[in-house]
Write a structure and sequence with these properties.
- The protein is an alpha+beta fold.
- It has one domain: Chemotaxis protein chec.
- Strands 1, 2, 3, 4, 5, 6 and 7 form a 7-stranded antiparallel beta sheet that branches.
- Strand 2 and strand 3 form a beta hairpin.
- Helix 1 packs across helix 3 and helix 2 packs across helix 3.
């Protein structure tokens, strides 16, 4: 299984994600006292059967993730936002203005982490998908966020990936702030046939001039 995109399609997809992340950043700006910039510099397609975090900075790391399912006429996907535990601590400090959280006492903040990361993930994922719904002229609905922690090598076991989701769209997300930079990943698990419908609809409705 392999997806081959033309340069035009790849640039259109990257532009669409940068637009959607801009919307997510605008929502996050309202929660913090400094400007947040979200960009998607890299997009990668892989088979769900062959997916691995090898050769990425997430390999052999403790991870936390927020998962939601989104469905519409032209879009059907499990979307998963992934951070290392260290990056999630940075996000919690940032959005809760809580500087007492450290690696030494992180376990004491398990409930706080779950609540904060679920809210952050919900904002990012829903803002992103809402932007896609506008571009696709589609009505896309999502489930409540699911939060969990796991090791990178057991991520897909926790995600319970559907056999219909043959394709993984992997996006590296860069959070830029005045005082720090935080990195994460966004996974979108898709059916190949649905991705083709999604891509055709996106190109029909995007103004790329």
């Amino acid at each position: 299984m392999k997806i081959e995109l033309s340069t035009f399609q790849e640039e259109a997809l990257k532009e669409a994600f940068n637009i959607s992340m801009g919307r997510a950043a605008a929502s996050l700006n309202e929660m913090v006292n400094e400007e947040v910039s979200l960009t998607v510099p890299n997009i990668l397609f892989v088979s769900s059967k062959d997916f691995t975090f090898k050769e990425s900075y997430l390999e052999e790391k403790e991870l936390c993730f927020i998962k939601q399912h989104f469905a519409g006429t032209f879009f059907n996907s499990d979307a998963v936002l992934i951070f290392t535990n260290d990056e999630s601590m940075e996000l919690i400090r940032l959005f809760l203005n809580e500087n007492t959280i450290s690696a030494d006492n992180f376990e004491e903040f398990t409930d706080l982490q779950q609540e904060a990361m679920s809210e952050i993930g919900n904002i990012i994922l829903n803002s992103c998908i809402a932007s896609f719904a506008e571009m696709l002229k589609d009505n896309i609905k999502g489930t409540l966020p699911l939060y969990a922690r796991t090791n990178s090598d057991k991520l897909f076991d926790h995600l319970k990936v559907s056999q219909n989701h043959e394709l993984v769209l992997l996006l590296y997300i860069d959070f830029k702030l005045k005082t720090r930079s935080i990195s994460g990943y966004l996974l979108m698990m898709l059916e190949i046939s649905n991705f083709n419908v999604f891509m055709n609809r996106l190109l029909e409705n995007m103004d790329l001039n």
